[in-house]
């Protein structure tokens, strides 16, 4: 009922999408707001590009004949408002037919198909020429067809893959299906609730993908915590309901604590004071909260209802494999270095992680753009040809000015002076004359100034700096004018600078609240400090892997991408917060098991051995699921999701293998009884025979220091 209600309410309310024009920061953000305030009636623009099939010089007569054919075809379409005169490229290699569509830009992708069909027919009708279409609707549709298909494939693969891994873990179909069922119901519910929340905080397009990633990760994790503990208690001879109650008391408590730490970590993104991060934080918090709610209500209820049917139908070989009794010899061998030589193991493993983190010191950040997409995508190839022939259609700086209506004449004169100043300057494009646009109320004026360089080129950034220096000078005699320069290059530069300023606040918040949460839960400053340090270590190592892979070219063929020599600017902060949250899942679960053993009176070394060995199955299974799901995202075309998938997969792998097998046990063994300082373990009372009688008397064991 809850899931159905979330879907219904989310569908009824609809999604309030984040307006990219109004979501920027610093000067580019101001430019977007100035443009939006002008309420310009912007129509979807399409460009039909005619080039020689050979890529050489264009036969002008044949090209003009094709242009007339394209014009006739477009004129007859109901979706087209007007068709402009053909524009020849300065290099003589292309002819451009501008087409203006009717309607709104937002739904142009769904209405552009008839135009694309006519362009394709014109291309077939004129052999020797290449006729293709690039514009608002066609580019959006091309991206949707390519990247949208990527995500559909990722979603279709991730669920069966997760189910297959869980089948190996549990050896029974129903037990394997329960975590997937919980995770999917959390994802669907969270998407409905996220649509509701978008009317308070507008939603970015990446939220649904982040909800899928986070929902599958924590939903499966929390179910594994429960199911593994319930099965362990049944093995010890507990009844089915008693086993569920013990699982609820132990694993259920861990789920609540883990969920709280993830939510606390994600809340740190609000301190970035940027609408995209606020949207991602909201979606993540919602899906984690739903996963926690489902884990402490629906999951135990479902297990109680299923009874022993949870272990049916059994997969013969896998069932025998999962039900083997006795301690795992593998884990005994793996933990031996940390338990016998803790200081040496700690130094070597921490040194290895720090070595892996070294490349992160050379991290370079940049906002993702079309130049980061695979050049195998047809619409990207067409865009490259368009910008090669008409540079002003590529990288554009948007100059925006707002002033009182009676100063409109002065503003237009100032902008024409600015345009004239760019003449002959190699930093700017000169294939078309920039046009000053005026809003209906005469208060807002804009002009697009092109540069022949790709956004990632330093010369494009240089042209932005020059324009930002010239604009105030041009408006010197318009005292009431408010001006700014925006556009792709400006947004990237401003966003990166903004993040560099806000990152210490976000990181500090996450570290402080994580420390406080762990200190309160375990009543131990040592556990709190070690949790923060170990998570910082694994995050730094994963950043090192990210830089080593994506800022260099050696992995291009392996992962099918073109290196830009940078990391997506929003990724390090988001990755840090997500990793801190997800890593705390493992940390809380493992340390809770170690503390349980210590409470029962075991020595530090035995507590560490037994705690990690008993939790190894859950942690390993959860890590395999996460790494598998995140790795799928590493196969997508969009570089930001490719980097996100690889970064998360590397971090989880390092966390589950190096941190949990070597660093954590070595550190806790080396610390000894100081692990639980100052609160102690809260050792449980033990029953001893009463003198002269048969009734037991409770004696409390001394607390560890």
TrEMBL record:
Keyword field contains ATP-binding: no
UniProt source species: Streptomyces luomodiensis
Keywords: Cell membrane, Membrane, Transmembrane, Transmembrane helix
Region (Disordered): 684-705
Domain Membrane transport protein MMPL: 39-325, 374-679
Pfam families per record: MMPL
Protein name: MMPL family transporter
Entry keyword Repeat: no
InterPro entries: MMPL_dom, Mycobact_MmpL
Membrane topology per record: Multi-pass membrane protein
Protein's cellular compartments: Cell membrane
Location, primary (coarse class): membrane
Gene3D superfamilies: Multidrug efflux transporter AcrB transmembrane domain
Chain ranges passing through the membrane: 156-174, 207-227, 248-271, 277-304, 338-361, 503-522, 529-550, 570-591, 612-633, 645-667
